[in-house]
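Lab manual, section 2.4: Encoding a predicted structure.

Procedure: take the sequence of the chain (402 residues), apply the prediction step described in section 2.3, and record the output as structure tokens. A sample record is shown.
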Amino acid sequence: MRAPKILAVASAIDLDFRYGCTPAWWQLWKGLYENGVDLVVTPYRGRPVVSPWWRVAPNPTYREAETYAALRGAAARVKGDRYIRRAEEQPDESAVDKLTRETIWRVVTPRWRRHLERLVEREKPDAVLVFTVPMAHFRGIPTALRERFGIPVVFYDGDVPMSLPEFGGMDTGFNYYHGADPSEYDLIVSNSEGGIPRLLELGARRAEAVYWAADPEFFAPQQVEKEHDVFFYGYGDKFRQEWTQAMVGEPSRVAPEIDFAMGGRDFRGDTGGARILGDVPFNAFARAISSARINLNITRRSHASVAGSSTCRPFELASAGAAIVSNPHAGIERWFEPGSELVIVEDTKQALSAYHELLDDPAQAEAMGARARERVLDEHTYGHRARQLLKLLGLAKPVGVR
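Recorded output:
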């Protein structure tokens, strides 16, 4: 029986770009490999990165993308910032955004169409998966591939609902859905169950939820010295400043005896007395988690308010055996049992109570982390997600076939 073959178009493969989904894509692609998939990955941003788990194809518009990124960065620096910021609710599409999209349609889209047609002709994949590339930039391509080759074309949006027009995504990227036609795709895979009705409203013909997960071999408990009492890592605090204040800023002032640390950049809100550690390299994630007595899951408002909108962090923390304290997140009980596998807090007072209880009883913290890891092993590995995705694509192996 021939191995299923997938052609993947990725927003990026290079982890240096700090795109939040990229480390998760690596783990999912590894999971697909372990389920027998022959995977070919071509990046939309940056150069291809070879791994033991997939083959690569080039980026046909590398120079154009890097030139645009440099110009955007220069424009942000003129304004005295690292990024060109968007409003957190209903961000308007600027004249520059519209001009950029029109230019992409004239220059970039045709080259990607030719590139993908050549790849499909050569590789003969069973499906094409587009991973978080701005949907509007590929306008017309899914239709062209389907009509010419008769294969399904699937869009995988790992950042719903923040990617939706009403939130507009992170300041580091594009608003995916402005000028896009979701009906071009046979299926939209989303990290969010609660976001599916909105995707259908935007025009998707079919939408299915595949939650985030963790690779339990990579995110495994590490035998390291404890360096922090309470640790949070994240890509900035957009959509969650109220919770970084409630769970880090204010508690660090009320209880200075507790050592707070934050990894990452672009924290623009109240971080109180927390030590800001800067970026944590991907290969040090598990070590950083294990070096803290308590790890925080602070979910952005966009995700926390839409039921069943998964993010990577709780799965990664749980897989690493962390004692997790989380802000409220609609639907988190789908994945972990509050009170047993993690602690949910509603405000600063509850956060401080949870911190003191877990710090005063390390055995309790360790046991909670062990239960969370066991839940990941049972239900939330990327092997589980890869099999679910293959089933949605109609590429799952029959029972008993190795």
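Check your result against the sample. DSSP finds twelve helices and 13 strands in the chain.
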